[in-house]
């Protein structure tokens, strides 16, 4: 089995074999999660702490459920009530938690790079649950699993990523993953929402939805990230929906069997028409949520194996 890392900080550090290992193991957890009794003891005796410095509904719930189903003791640190609000630095918070001997730390933070910094200060495995505009690796992995199940493969597909690419860690992690797995990626966004230097990723760039969706197998919509905008990036939401919102008319430019994805939370009527989001023949948005739990279980399982191997090796070293 591949995936030998201590942490899961980004897709950037994974090989295609690592990605395949996560997806294959996640398939077994999809089956477990569909049973009435969803319990495993893979993380029994281990402590998982979730630290979300930014709002989250599905990612936090998904990590919590994943840890509990694997038998870990899971604690959600409520950042709103913690010493962070009293001015404690991220590093001090990390060192304090580290002294409590967690095995897995799940961290979301509004600053790009904050999770990597924290990982360098602790003795446990750290999972990045989204850092600023940088990476959101478990989202890209759950998207890959959803695509693989719907399309039967995760290679040689044409994937259109549409909307607020500039502010999106989901877009970045997906772009890296889909590129590593040899897919053709197209980015569709107004010029104001396209990040600079995006050409380096070797994808095709469009500012017209219909042209960009032509022949796409997968249409991945992104939320307009208003909380990361400090100026007028779009003329108005109505105008944005008219030009970049996914509706039946624009979707008809993609392949007839194209699937529609969205990481959530959705702004219905802004980046996506509610009817398309709810169309069970096209939308796999609910399946993405289901795959999220399974993928997070697989990631934590693999990291826990590495942690045990590392600690076992250290213990032997001490005895010698
Ligand atoms: C995404 C995130 O937080 O980056 N959401 C999520 O994790 N499901 C995307 C978003 O907030 O738009």
Defining key terms:
single chain, 320 residues, alpha/beta, five-stranded parallel beta sheet, 11 helices, 9 strands, globular, binds N-carbamoyl-L-aspartate
In short:
With 320 residues, the chain is an alpha/beta fold. Helices cover 40% and strands 14% of the residues. It contains 11 helices and 9 strands.
Structure description:
- This protein is an alpha/beta fold and 320 residues long.
- The protein contains eleven helices and nine strands.
- It has helices at 16-33, 58-69, 90-98, 114-119, 137-151, 169-180, 209-213, 237-244, 248-251, 274-277, 285-319, and strands spanning 47-52, 73-77, 104-109, 125-131, 158-162, 184-188, 204-206, 218-221, 259-261.
- It has a five-stranded parallel sheet. A four-stranded parallel sheet has the order 2-1-3-4.
- α1 (16-33) packs across α5.
- The longest helix is centred in the C-terminal third of the chain and has 35 residues, at 285-319.
- It is globular.
- The mean pLDDT is 93.
- N-carbamoyl-L-aspartate binds next to α2 and α6.
Parts with pLDDT < 50 across at least 5 consecutive residues: none
Question: Structural class, judged by helices and strands?
Answer: alpha/beta
Percentage of β-strand residues: 5-15%
Report the end-to-end length measured between terminal Cα atoms: 28 Å
Bound compounds, each kind once, are:
N-carbamoyl-L-aspartate
* Strand order in space, largest sheet: 7-6-5-8-9
Largest sheet: 5 strands, parallel
> Helical proportion?
40-55%
